[in-house]
Structures are given as structure tokens and as C-alpha cells.
Amino acid sequence: KLRSEESMRRKLHNTIQELKGNIRVFCRVRPLLGEEKAAASLLPLSFPDCEDQNEVELMQSSENALGKSTSKTFPFKFDRVFAPDSSQNMVFDEVSQLIQSALDGYPVCIFAYGQTGSGKTHTMQGPDAISASGMDEEILGIIPRAVKQIYENTSKLTERGWEYSLEGQFLEIYNETLQDLLAPSGRSTQASDKQAGDKQSKLDIYQDNEGHTRVKNLTMVKVDSAERVHWLLARAAENRTVAATNCNERSSRSHSVFTLYLRGKNTLTGESSTGVLNLIDLAGSERLSNSGSSGDRLKETQAINKSLACLGDVIAALAKGSRHIPYRNSKLTHLLQESLGAGNSKTLMFVCVNPSPGSTQESLCSLQFATKVNSCQIGTARRQAA
Ligand code: ADP
Ligand code: MG
């Protein structure tokens, strides 16, 4: 009886999830901050009053050759649009079902895309973990909330015979090089040190015996309590600081990927499940023109542009049901290959937007990228072809 109740619950939950599609895009517009408030008069973004709360309009003003100002309006529609007054609670309410899917054994990816300063880290993580102790819970982002939800649910599932083990990894991809953010402090810098040539600390993506994508030499941490995640975020923050002279600058130019492996076994029924939850804070999407930058800066710019474009290409190729999916064109897609490509995988992309007039052009680019992603449905093409 237990078995059938549990599998019914899972089936129902996942039927609902399928109906919603396996690629979803949410738009989140952050509020104006501090000085921006005084500086901004007419905001480029507006939110049509619709029941589904899924529309946003961007108005772009420009001057024509005769000095006359003209404006153009671009309407966008996503699965959900969060206006600036949306709380972390409201956002997580819409995410928690996907977290449940990971617990049910599905591969899940949640991305935050957008220009630097648009609210990606705020959405994924919340404020710095170090200052998070004793702070208002409302301010916490998706990572700590997801872990908390998983703990609450796994303890409920214990009564039904499920035992779960949770393991986490946290890495950063900078200039197409992997960095371990959970390495004991200080060690992570070695991985990128070309001169060190230390095989022990070199992080390489490989396929294990069962065909799973893994990273060699990466620290895996047992996430054995909801509180553990604060420790983990703090260590990651510390490692970032060690690796960079300017931490913010650095984090805006790298992707950070937090991965949680959820392995469940039911001691009563013998069932088992393996879910993976990837929470990805992408590098800033701002168009960095190649002209003018040189050396390290140019290399960074090219690496970011290339890997973000590659992410779009992979999603589009999956949606088209292409036979060749260009995972290997970037470290990010190579790393996420399994989670992105599995027929039952679920992907959510947050497109984060800064509402300031000065960011209109970047906002337009972000919203257009997100629209492309939104038009994709991975697996549908394959299922229809089958
Ligand atoms: P990104 O990671 O995209 O560069 P951040 O998440 O660091 O951007 O956000 C930039 C600034 O805006 C930070 O000071 C952050 O606290 C603030 N911020 C972002 N989103 C919100 C929000 N929804 N509400 C209040 N402040 C926000
Ligand atoms: Mg950030």
C-alpha cells in the first residue's frame, strides 16, 4: 500500500511538471537601489496587469537623425514575471516544485542569467553566507531554501521507508578553467596555477564507469543538515576571496555551479532514486566589446561570450532533437551534459533584469536571449519523433 501511495504521489507531481514543460523561463526585475532611485525618472520596464503575471514590456527611447526622440516598445512573455516588489519567498514558491522533482529522482538545472548587478546572486544565494548567520530568513536565496526544503521533505519520507544521502559540490568556471570552491581554504588557487602543474589538484571533467559526468579531484561534501549549507556557502565565499584581488569583479566574470546529488533508497519497497540539482549563477552577460580590451581581459571576455552562447546553442540543439549536441564546446555545458540532456531533465532559467534606464540596452539583450530559450522544449521533438 505504501508503495502505491508513494508512486501515485510521484506520478501526479511529475505529470503536473510535464504539463508545464521541461524548460521554463522566469523573469525577475530587481528594485532600484540607493542612488538609482533618485537618478531614474521614467523606467524602461512596465508590467501589464494580467492575471498570469507573465508579461513585461520594455520601452527603448532613442533620437533619430533629426534629433526627434522616438520610442519603441518590446513586449515579452515568460512562464512568470517577478516585478521589483517580489520577495524571495514569492520567488521560491514557484521554484519549490522543481526541488521536489530533484528529490523524486530527476535531473534539474536552475540558471540565473543577466548582466552584472541584475540580481543573479541575490536570487540564487541571497546575501553573503558569512553575514547570513542570525539574519532575517526572508532574505535567503534559492540555495539555502532548497536545502532546507529537501531536509524537511526527506524527514517526512523517512516514515515511508526512504533513506536519503545528500552530497554537494561547488565549483567555479573562470576562463574555461575549473576551480574547487569547497577545497580546504587556499588550496583552490592551486588548481588554476599553471606553474604548479600539480596533477593532484587538477580538476578534469570525465565520464565514470556508469557513464556519469564527474570532476576529478573535486571536493564532495556530505550535506548532512540544512545548517551545513551556510558553512558551505561561507567556504565558497572564502575561496573566491583567496583566488581574486577583487572578489566581485571576479565572480561577475565566472560561472558558479552548486550541485547536489540526492540518492534515495526505500528500505521497505526496495525502490531507489537518484536526483541531481544544479544551481548555476552565470557570469555577467553584458556585451563586452572585444575592441579596447586586451590580454587577460580580452581572454575573459571571449570565454564568457563563448560559453553563454554555447549554453544557448546546446538548449536549441536539444529542442530541435539534433543528433549532435555541442556539449564539448564549453566547460559549463560539458559539466552539465547529463543534467541538460536527459529526456526527463528539467531546466529553469531566471533572466535577471536591472530596471535602470541606463541598462535598457542590456536588458533588451537579456530578454531576447531568454525568449529564445523559452521557445525551446527539450525532449518534445524527440518524443514526437519516437
Ligand atoms: P549579480 O549577481 O547579478 O551581479 P547581485 O545579486 O549581486 O547581482 O545584485 C546586485 C545588488 O542588487 C546587490 O547589492 C543586491 O543585494 C541587490 N539586489 C539584487 N536583487 C535584489 C532584490 N530583488 N531586492 C533587493 N536587492 C536586490
Ligand atoms: Mg553575482
Automatic annotation (TrEMBL):
Q: Which GO MF terms are attached to this record?
A: ATP binding; microtubule binding; microtubule motor activity
Q: Which UniProt keywords apply?
A: ATP-binding, Coiled coil, Cytoplasm, Cytoskeleton, Microtubule, Motor protein, Nucleotide-binding
Origin superkingdom: Eukaryota
List ligand-binding residues for ATP: 114-121
- Does the keyword Cytoplasm feature in the UniProt annotation? yes
Q: Where is the Kinesin motor domain?
A: 22-376
- Subcellular localization: Cytoplasm, Cytoskeleton
Any one GO CC term of this protein is: microtubule
A Gene Ontology BP annotation from the UniProt entry: mitotic spindle assembly
What does the sequence similarity comment in the record state about its family?
Answer: Belongs to the TRAFAC class myosin-kinesin ATPase superfamily. Kinesin family. KIN-14 subfamily.
Q: What is this protein called in UniProt?
A: Kinesin-like protein
Which organism does this sequence originate in?
Answer: Coemansia pectinata
- Which part of the complete protein is shown? 443 to 828 of 828
